[in-house]
Amino acid sequence: MATVSDSVHGRIEHAQTRLTPAQLVAGFLLIAALGFTLLFVQEPLVHDSLHNFRHAAGITCH
Fold first, then answer.
1. Distance of alpha carbon 51 from its chain centroid, rounded?
2. What confidence tens digit (pLDDT) does each residue in 13-28 have?
């Protein structure tokens, strides 16, 4: 039997009750920075490795 924290929604609710606003902002900024890197880095070697990572994460990019 699954508990509330076994779902993504439950984990988000749990994090919101346990983390400080500064920690939530830091987490959001980290996710935003990683997203920017995954989407916009175009150096060929980095781009190829990130392209493979996007596919492994299930993101369709073409």
1. 15
2. 888 888 898 998 998 8
